Amino acid sequence: AADSDGCFPVYAEESHVLPTEANYFKAGHSLDLIGDDLHIFGSLSGGTETFTLVNAKRVVDQTDEIYPYWKRATVNGIKERGAHISFVRHGRLYIQGGYTPSHAMLGDMFEIDVASGSSNAAPVSYSSLTLNIERRWHCGHYYDDRLYLHGGWNDGGPLNDLIQFSFEDQSWKSINIDGSIPSARRWHVMTPLLRDEKKMILHGGYDGNEKQLLNDAFLLDLETMNSQKLNLKKFSDKGRCRHTLTNVDNKTMIMLGGYANNSQIDRSIFILNLENLTCSQVENVGEIYAGIRGGHKVSKISEHGMIIAGGHVDGYVEPFYFLDLRMLKFST
Question: pTM for this structure?
Fold first, then answer.
């Protein structure tokens, strides 16, 4: 394991275009890795800018003198928004849903060809609609040229439905789920398994109606449309929302940050073993204290490293941190 130097702020050349504390410590942004570049879009503060950390994978490897640097661009043709979802399709960035700074709900979808340097957002046409495509704080997953949305919130309240958009015929439809169905929630996580991306683990969130944080977990299969409730000891001992659940490799995931029932940042970090569905708690959280926050986003950029971006935290710390996963020490 590495020492505490394995968690450090991300600096880059041309720091005058660094995303500001005001924009990204209020969260609601998205974070996507396309090639070697990390793309950030939107926030609850508004704006239609993308901030790109070019050569993001070189944050820790600069042996050939290729350095990361920030690039900023204003995207035309898309409304200001936060609390949206994002995904990558054919090397292009897609943005769906969310809400404006004035809290107007959005159900539209846009494609941005960030890799070519385009600053224009092309709207995705819908040939048919279904209920609740307008939502915020929902989860999304792109699989088999379809976009799946779960949960979130709109003017009608909390949602527990699963809906699908097919790029083949550009249609929306509602999906019936069998088995143990997750309750309505927002601020949850829904992370696909690297070894089998048709399967996703859904965890936690905030129910809205009873104003309770949720601690349950489910395995959702997009082929069978079956949902299985999981018994994850430690992992689900208490409610958590606005956290992240990120693939470390084919066998493990890491759960980091978020809020606990007392509305404080939850500093506990867990490693989930996907082979036997057991959890281990990270013991040396003090060494990565500044990187733990709620409402953040995470992107794995190398075999052993990931970038933690934005979110809320007590006191000021740098908006972006690199975490070397090899430094983590955990109990069994």
Answer: 0.93
